[in-house]
Design goal:
The complex is a heterodimer of chains A (574) and B (419). Chain A is an alpha/beta fold and 574 residues long. In chain A, strands 8-7-10-9-11-12-14-13 form an eight-stranded mixed sheet, sandwiched between helices. In chain A, strands 16-17-15-18-19-20 form a six-stranded parallel sheet, with helices on both faces. Chain A has a five-stranded parallel sheet with strand order 6-5-4-21-22, sandwiched between helices. The two termini of chain A are 72 Å apart. In chain B, 37% of the residues lie in helices and 20% in strands. In chain B, α7 (191-208) packs antiparallel against α8. Classes of the chains: A alpha/beta (574), B alpha+beta (419).
Chain lengths: 574, 419
């Protein structure tokens, strides 16, 4: 038998919507069949009457009175329900949860967190490019965790970042630590004087852990993404990061590491680092130069050796003399190459190997790599090392250590080539050799130098002299004579080769134009107190745990992944 | 491709929308005020629709409209006139008008006249009947018709005289700005606005109505109805939306309306073409004795409020009705925050105290809707599916995504964007 109970509460006011909610809650109670909770206006009383919910108690309720009308399975259930009203109303108030708004678009996130300098992107690669470009357009640096981004898109993103003076780490960048805040996967290490640039995620992690273990620490560690050091990308991010760290007061020494890479790119980076004013420890796995140092580049063979060297350098900063790179201003634009004319085969080999650290592709008649084998040794090609002691030159002639005629002719030939910037020759003294090589060489050197100068070219002539004071030709006499003729003289093969290497490295064009790097500002990059996360919520939580103010974008594929609509939207934006 | 600059066009459109200043200037007969209004023409809410496809409440309201116009004596006659092709139908929107729920507006009905004093365009809306059994929910019984006649013959002339005697009419934009600071969002909650409206009319009515009994009845009618101002507000919004319509290259939505069967939108840069899709079923709270099984499909032109940045878009200003959006004031804030995602601007005149007086989200950009997969939020009353029962609840609904996708494709085709 159903039972109707009513209660009238005078002088109360509730918005009708609050009352509808209350009504819904009462209806959910056990044994309740129907409910009406309304202010006692005439119209409302009519509604309750038609629903069979009105009792005599409520018939004369006023508009300011609240009527609670309940139809229940029994009088008892009805009374229970009435008794629960206050509890339900207070419950509603206390269970109000506060949930912050989650933006759906990057632009909205930027508006809510305008000071954020970084956007972490981990959306599927198919969409990552557009999100990254949008972040750059909004003036934000990008940590791009997403993979499956094409090489062309990577170049597009990085060129855009370069134009805007912003940094893009990635794509496929898993790790970075900036000002102690870890992006993506990152170890917790001490803050310290060593800056890191890594084209390898685990390489970065191993390095910073090793630095921590050695009692040192990390200023900032930038990841670049594994393809940054591919020739087409040209190490844009690596160079930007190196520049930023070079300008960072908290960084004393920089470590650059990479998985095996093209020597062309390695050389490009070495050259670039030589424009910076900080010691940089370079560990390119699989790239083993014959020299331990080029200017401010210090080579390390392994990750641990790199961190060890970095720590040592950072604690002996004052004792490091920074080489000033050779000035190239006197050379004409056409002059780019070195020509080495050797009488000694081993000297030629060593020079060839050292030069390979400074220049990609050195041609030679004794080349180890068949790609760079010079088939017609009488004509030089780009950078060339000729061993004139090879059989082809000595057939029917004296060895070039004795007879300078062929080399002198070749010296003139090379000096007349507009592309020649440097010519390196060796002079081997001692018994059996030419009795006075400088007597033949010096006049020719001054002659070809002035001839070049008259045509607007500066020609650098380097002579490697191997001999002693007690040799019949007298080392110091030979050196003096050659210097007077305008030659640069060295007495050690790797030094001569390095000297030449520095010059030609300075003359080779960069893989990318890095002029715009000047706009990069370390302060805007190292500001990590607030960050915007797009994609994996896990990274957002990780940032929050690290005390970073993070806004998570509740990202969805644009146009719900509809390709046609995405295409239209893209075209409408451009 | 034509040289269009969508960003610029949208900025212009939304600026015209915000700068429009709708003034309620008078009340008069539809046949006198609405250009090309015909005696056998019935204006209805939403996009164009045929009799066969009309929902219950729409059919009921149409029958009521025909009886009100004395074109037929009863339901049977009215239906046979319709089936005989003697009655014509057109959307209110195609006649500079808007109407809540069924929106049925006929030639001899007294209607509000709004003038946008910035651009000079006009907009119209019928008078609000209050609650219970009313025409806009499809009721057409004798008492419903009787009330309509009383409104037409007694209430309307009093308001008309009052407005005629006012210096500058009633500034609807100003009224709305104030109401948004008093807990209204301008669509589902118009309590404050209706009080403000009644307060503005009361002294004028007291002064110009000779019959104090009638004056009292009219004031009581206005004061009892928390939706009194809804209709002038809707016409005001229509005047704002129309100011933004027809801007070459603009992707701003300037009409969103439902006829109970279909929802239709119009886009500023795409002329008078409708893009339609099936209406949704509102999710909300129901009056005692009713459930979602009783609900009609979404209906009414009142979404003109959302179109110009109030209603569901201004949810954050109406904490009293937050239960529609699941319960907490934070949810109300989030509702408004979400709409910033798909709009191009923040309103210069409509601001939200709870958001530190940030302007309401205004100017729905169909590109953003499609890109982010977020459709506009609509606060709405829920009609019973059967004619004449009336309102059964209130809640939240969203338009179908298809109308935005279709309009985006049409925009691309119209402007040769894919060529």
């Amino acid at each position: 038998m159903t039972h109707i109970v009513n209660e009238v509460r005078s002088g109360t006011y509730y918005d009708s919507v609050v009352l509808m909610q209350l009504q819904k809650s009462i209806l959910a109670l056990k044994g309740v069949l129907d409910v009406g909770v309304m202010m006692g206006t005439e119209a409302n009383r009519d509604v309750l009457e038609q629903s069979g919910l009105l009792t005599e108690d409520s018939k004369y309720a006023a508009a300011e009175d609240l009527i609670i009308a309940i139809k229940a399975e029994s009088a008892e259930k009805g009374k229970d329900a009435l008794d629960s009203v206050d509890m339900i109303m207070s419950q509603r108030q206390s269970s109000q949860t506060s949930q912050d708004f989650r933006p759906r678009s990057l632009i909205t996130a930027v508006r809510s967190l305008p000071d954020a300098r970084w956007v972490l992107i981990s959306v599927p690669g198919r969409y990552a490019v557009d999100v990254a470009l949008e972040a750059l357009d909004l003036g934000k640096n990008v940590f791009l965790y997403s993979d499956n981004v094409s090489l062309d898109d990577e170049i597009l993103i990085k060129k855009s970042s370069l134009e805007k003076g912003l940094l893009v780490m990635g794509p496929d960048c898993g790790t970075a630590v900036i000002n102690g805040v870890g992006f993506g996967f990152a170890n917790v290490t001490k803050i310290g004087p060593v800056g890191v640039v890594a084209a390898s995620g685990t390489g970065l992690q191993a390095l910073i852990v090793s630095l921590d273990g050695l009692g040192s620490g990390v200023s900032h560690a930038f990841g670049t993404g594994g393809r940054d050091l591919k020739d087409k990308v040209g190490g844009i991010t690596s160079k930007q990061a190196l520049s930023l760290l070079a300008g960072d007061n908290d960084t004393q020494v920089i470590v650059l590491t990479s998985k095996p890479l093209a020597s062309e790119v390695a050389i490009d980076l070495i050259r670039f680092i030589n424009t910076l004013n900080k010691p940089v420890v370079v560990n390119f796995l699989g790239f083993v130069p014959l020299v331990t140092r080029i200017g401010n580049v210090f080579f390390a063979k392994t990750l641990h050796e790199a961190s060890d060297l970095a720590v040592k350098l950072s604690s002996n900063l004052d004792s490091i003399t920074m080489n000033t790179p050779v000035s190239n201003k006197e050379f004409a634009p056409s002059q780019r190459y070195v020509r080495c004319l050797f009488s000694g085969g081993t000297l030629a080999y060593e020079t060839l190997l050292v030069l390979n650290t400074f220049a990609e592709g050195v041609y030679s008649n004794i080349a180890i790599n068949s790609d760079y084998k010079l088939h017609d040794a009488s004509v030089s090609k780009e950078h060339t090392v000729i061993d004139m002691g090879e059989d082809e030159y000595t057939l029917g002639r004296l060895h070039p250590m004795m007879d300078y005629d062929l080399r002198l002719r070749r010296l003139r030939q090379e000096s007349e080539d507009e592309e020649t910037a440097v010519i390196l020759l060796d002079v081997v003294l001692g018994h059996g050799s030419h009795p006075n090589p400088s007597a033949e060489l010096a006049p020719m050197i001054s002659d070809v130098k002035s001839a070049a100068l008259s045509e607007g070219r500066y020609l650098e002539i380097v002579v490697l002299v191997i001999g002693t004071e007690n040799d019949p030709q007298e080392l110091s006499v030979q050196i003096e004579s050659l210097r007077r003729a305008g030659a640069h003289v060295e007495t050690c093969t790797d030094k001569a080769a390095s000297y030449v290497g520095n010059i030609i490295m300075g003359l080779s064009p960069y893989l990318i134009n890095i002029k715009s790097l000047e706009g990069s500002d370390i302060d805007q990059v190292t500001q990590v107190s607030s960050i915007i996360n797009v994609g994996l919520e896990y990274f957002h939580e990780s940032l929050i745990q690290q005390g970073v103010q993070s806004t998570h974008v509740d990202w969805q594929p644009p146009a719900q992944g509809n390709e046609k609509l995405m295409d239209i939207l893209a075209k409408m934006k451009s | 491709m034509d040289k269009i600059n969508i960003e610029k066009s949208n900025a212009l459109a939304v600026d015209k929308m915000m700068s429009a200043r709708p003034i309620l200037v008078g009340v008069g007969r539809a046949s006198d005020l609405i250009p090309n209004m015909q005696a056998n023409l019935i204006l209805h809410a939403g996009p164009p629709i045929t009799w066969e496809k009309m929902s219950g409440p729409m059919k009921g309201a149409v029958i009521g409209g025909i009886i009100f116009e004395n074109l037929a004596k009863n339901e049977e006659d009215a239906i046979s006139m319709i089936e005989g092709g003697e009655i014509e139908f057109a959307p209110c929107h195609e006649f500079d008008s808007v109407g809540p729920m069924a929106g049925v507006t006929t030639a001899s009905m007294q209607i509000y006249e709004i003038v946008n004093s910035t651009d000079g365009n006009k907009a119209y809306s019928n008078l609000n009947e209050g609650y219970g059994k009313v025409l806009r929910y499809g009721a057409y019984s004798e008492d419903v018709i009787k009330k309509l006649r009383w409104m037409n013959e007694e209430v309307a002339p009093v308001i008309a005289d009052a407005l005629a005697s006012s210096d500058h009419g009633i500034d609807i934009r100003q009224l709305l700005s104030e109401a948004l600071h008093m807990g209204d969002e301008g669509h589902n909650r118009n309590k404050a606005g209706s009080i403000l409206y009644t307060a503005k009319l009361a002294p004028l009515i007291a002064k110009h109505c000779d019959n104090s009994s009638i004056a009292s009845d009219v004031l009581q009618f206005l004061a009892d109805n928390a939706l009194s101002v809804l209709n002038p507000v809707m016409a005001g919004c229509k005047a704002m939306a129309d100011a933004a319509h027809g801007i070459e290259g603009s992707t701003i939505m300037t009409v969103m309306a439902r006829n109970g069967t279909e929802l239709g939108v119009r886009i500023s840069g795409l002329g008078d073409r409708w893009f339609t899709g099936p209406v949704g079923q509102p999710v909300g709270l129901y009056f005692p004795g009713f459930t979602s099984d009783d609900a009609s499909g979404d209906i009414g032109d009142s979404t003109i409020t959302e179109t110009v940045g109030i209603g569901g878009f201004a949810m954050a200003s109406a904490p009293a009705i937050v239960t529609f959006v699941s319960g907490t004031p934070q949810d109300a804030l989030n509702a408004t925050m979400e709409m910033y995602e798909i709009t191009v601007s923040e309103h210069k005149h409509f601001t939200i105290p709870a958001l530190d007086f940030r302007g309401t989200p205004v100017g729905v950009d169909i590109r953003k809707v499609v890109e982010l997969g977020i459709t506009p939020r609509i606060n709405t009353g829920i009609a019973h599916k059967d004619a004449g029962v009336g309102q059964v609840g209130a809640g939240l609904v969203r338009p179908p995504m298809s109308v935005f996708e279709e309009s985006l494709v049409a925009f691309a085709e119209h402007y040769g964007i894919l060529d």
